[in-house]
Every structure is written in structure tokens, then in C-alpha cells.
Design brief:
single chain, 451 residues, DNA polymerase, domain 1, 3 domains, 3-stranded antiparallel sheet, 15 helices, DNA binding
């Protein structure tokens, strides 16, 4: 049976919070929370556990606490009968509900707000460098859809809808634990959902929706760099793929996409969207122009690899889905004997999650490997800002994490000395050329007069 008592936790000579203590059963659960009311300790009766009846204000305060007592008692009984989780954030919401401190309208439901974001995705203003643009990217929209669905699943489990006012530390901790331990999501997957919730809360508050103040303090965890296993194809492995005897037409087509992808450094979706119309020539040089889906950034890539030029000019691959390409390139790499035992994660159909282990490398290759291979293979062979301009990375620190390359403090100094050396050689060559030019000869011509 539940026990409900009101008490003070301070004897200060000033108004202090009145707390409500809820005990469920014999020590099964003990919760204590502020009621939102305050009183000076000299006006509090320890014997009744209520304010003294010595003035109108205290009488009104006593009536409010007497109203809260049966309201909480009934709410607890109903929650226990429906197997609803009773914890600090549940108690806080019931106290607010008792006094109508927050009107929990549909606008206050986080799933409704996220649905509105999804419905208006194409017209929403998004801040970009130099101003704003209209429309969320498809991947961003899908991320919100996934977060809304997982919140709805959690609400079904707890039998309680989540309002913005409910987003406190206790709720976020329980939700994150459920994602990691029950759903068995990876840290980064879980963190994306938590990050989306934080973003939505901040936006909602900016638009006048009442949001729990904790929302801005939500911390986002991420996997350490050591937990990221980046699969790339080296130049030597790409040579083996070029030479491999591929029989299947579908696999031949996939090999073309793979070879192009590892030379242009773009995401899988951008790669599969290119057509011959993206190709441009300037003199004898071939260029590939495209606009990246995620960043909306216009990118131009110079194509120099002869085998890629040949594919683009003479046997352009036909378009397939990313899923089919992921399946086919594994077979292509298997045929090319890309079999080195490599650490990585593969989806396990039994658990429904990715499993970390040692696998033959061809099993780990996906379209994500293309962009990473480009960045990794050309790193330190081409200036990093040039690679970032092609790959679309905005920060060098992110780029280095992406290719698993620690910061090299000597790199800029080495590049400076290299470029300085090249400049000096050019100056010396010009000086030597000038010294070798024949000097003009001067001849004195008499004017025919004599003195």
C-alpha cells in the first residue's frame, strides 16, 4: 500500500520547498520530490505534516496539499493496476497535472512535434554556410522518422506518452538504457536518437512550447575512435579487382561502380546518381560535376585514372539500388581474393544486431568503403584541404577521424618546406636561364666629324 507524506528538509529562517514523500509497499520504492510550494518552517506543523492554520495563505496552502494527497493516491493505484512505471518523472508529471500547471495538449507530445517536422521536411529552413536553404536532406528526414518510431515503441512499453515537460534526466537515462540493453543498439545508433530528442526539445522551446529545463543539458555519448573499424581498399587491392575474372554481368556492373567510387570520393547515394550528363571536358581533361545530397555542396572532381576514364566514356554502368550494390561488391571482392582476416562488424540475423569479429575482408566491404578508400589512398599524396573539398568534410579533425589518421604535427611544416623548395627551384631555374641569355653588344659609331 502506498504512503504519502509532506515534509520540509530545512529549518532555515526563510521559505523552503515543501516536499512530498511517496513510499510504495514495504520499502519497495521511496520517492521524494518538490511539490512546487514553499513555506517558512515556523509556519509548518510537524505533528500534522501540514501548514499551521494561522493565516489565510497557510490555510490555502494546506488545502492544496490536501488536494494533492488523494490525487496522488488514486493515480498510484491506477498506475500499479496498469503496470505503468512509477518513478521520479512520473511523480513530477502527476504533481503538475493535479494543479494544471502545464496544459498537456497534443502540441506538447514529442512524437506529434517530430511528426510535424517530418510533414514539413521539404519546406523547413535549414541553416547553411552563408545563409539558409529550404528542405531537410532525405537522410535527416529518415533519422527523425526512426526516432519517432522508437519513441512510440518505448511509450507502448511504459504505457505512458512522453511530453516535453517529461524530458528530465531520469527519463533520458531510462530511455538510453533501454536502447542499449533491451534493443541492443550500438552506442552511435542510440546517441543519434538522444541527439534528435535534444534538437527537437530546443526547437520546440524556441517556438514557445514549454519544455523541461533539463533538455538543454542532455549529453550525447559516442563510440571512441578505437571502436570504429574502417574498411578500405588499397591501390593494390583495387588492382586485383580490376584484373579479376568477373563472369556475371551484374557483378561486372558493380565492379564499375566500385572502381568509380574509389576514385571520386563521394557517398553511395551521390555515386549512384551520376549519369553521363555529369561529365564535362576542358581541353583534354575530364571533370565530373555533382551536387552532394547531404551538404547541397557543388563538387567538381578531376578524373585522371585511365581505367575510370575508360569506364565513364565507353561502358558507363547502369543504375542499381544501394542494397544490391552492397551485395554484389562483396562477391566482386571475393572473386578478386580480398580475403585477409579483418576486424569488423556484420549484421547477425539471429540477434538483429551487428556482431564484432574477425571476418574475411570481402564480407566487410560496402559502399561506405568507397569514399573512405579515396580519402585514405590519397591522404598525404594530395593536400588534405583538396581531399576535403572533394569528399565534403567540413573540418580536418573530422576528416582525420574518418580515415583513422592521427594528427601529424609535422605535416604542415613538411608541406611548407616542400612548396618552398619548389618555389626556390623555380627561382633558381629562372635566374640560371637569365644568366645564360647572350648579353647585348654595344658598338661606338662615329658621326663622321673630326676635332
Amino acid at each position: 500500500m502506498a504512503s504519502i507524506k509532506f515534509r520540509l528538509r530545512s529549518n532555515a529562517n526563510k521559505n523552503v520547498p515543501i516536499k512530498v514523500r511517496v513510499t510504495l509497499g514495504r520499502g519497495k520504492q521511496d520517492l521524494e520530490l518538490n511539490t512546487g510550494f514553499t513555506i517558512n518552517p515556523k509556519d509548518w506543523s510537524e505533528s500534522t505534516g501540514l501548514p499551521k492554520q494561522n493565516n489565510p495563505e497557510n490555510k490555502k496552502l494546506s488545502n492544496n496539499l490536501k488536494k494533492l494527497d488523494p490525487f496522488l493516491f488514486d493515480s498510484i493505484n491506477n498506475a500499479m493496476g496498469e503496470s505503468i512505471v512509477i518513478d521520479a518523472f512520473w511523480l513530477e508529471s502527476k504533481i503538475n497535472e493535479c494543479f494544471n500547471r502545464v496544459e498537456k495538449t497534443d502540441d506538447g507530445l514529442i512524437t506529434n512535434y517530430i511528426q510535424n517536422i517530418i510533414d514539413t521536411a521539404d519546406t523547413r529552413k535549414v541553416k547553411v554556410k552563408g545563409g539558409y536553404k529550404h528542405g531537410l536532406s532525405l537522410s535527416r528526414k529518415n533519422s527523425y522518422i526512426a526516432t519517432k518510431n522508437i519513441i512510440k515503441e518505448y511509450q507502448t512499453k511504459t504505457k505512458k506518452q512522453i511530453h516535453f515537460t517529461d524530458i528530465n534526466q531520469a527519463l533520458i537515462d531510462k530511455f538510453e538504457y533501454w536502447l542499449l540493453k533491451t534493443k541492443k543498439y550500438a552506442v552511435n545508433t542510440s546517441s543519434k536518437h538522444i541527439a534528435n530528442i535534444k534538437t527537437v526539445c530546443i526547437e520546440a522551446e524556441n517556438k514557445g512550447v514549454q519544455v523541461n529545463s533539463y533538455a538543454k543539458q542532455i549529453t550525447i555519448a559516442s563510440e571512441s575512435d578505437d571502436d570504429r573499424y574502417i574498411q578500405t581498399l588499397s591501390f593494390a587491392e583495387l588492382d586485383e579487382i580490376i584484373k579479376a575474372d568477373i563472369k556475371s554481368e551484374a557483378h561486372q556492373n558493380a565492379r564499375k561502380w566500385l572502381l568509380i567510387g574509389c576514385e571520386i570520393g563521394q557517398r553511395g547515394g551521390d555515386l549512384l546518381d551520376i549519369t553521363p550528363d555529369n561529365i564535362r571536358y576542358k581541353g583534354e581533361n575530364m571533370y565530373l560535376d555533382l551536387v552532394q545530397q547531404k551538404t547541397k555542396k557543388a563538387v567538381t572532381i578531376g578524373i585522371i585514372a585511365p581505367h575510370v576514364i575508360d569506364i565513364l566514356e565507353n561502358s558507363f554502368p547502369y543504375k542499381i539500388t544501394t542494397q544490391k550494390l552492397n551485395d554484389h561488391i562483396k562477391k566482386v571482392c571475393e572473386t578478386a581474393k580480398i580475403n585477409a582476416m579483418t576486424e569488423g562488424k556484420i549484421f547477425d540475423s539471429e540477434t538483429g544486431r551487428k556482431k564484432f569479429d574477425l571476418y574475411e575482408k570481402h564480407k566487410l566491404i560496402t559502399t561506405h568503403s568507397f569514399r573512405r578508400s579515396f580519402c585514405t589512398n590519397y591522404y598525404k599524396k594530395i593536400p588534405t584541404p583538396v581531399l576535403m573539398g572533394i569528399s565534403g568534410h567540413s573540418k580536418e579533425s573530422i576528416f582525420r577521424v574518418y580515415i583513422n589518421a592521427p594528427e601529424d604535427t609535422d605535416e604542415n611544416a613538411d608541406l611548407f618546406m616542400k612548396f618552398y623548395g619548389d618555389i626556390q627551384k623555380q627561382r633558381e631555374a629562372k635566374q640560371k636561364e637569365a644568366e645564360q641569355e647572350p648579353k647585348p653588344q654595344f658598338t661606338v659609331i662615329k658621326n663622321g666629324t673630326s676635332n
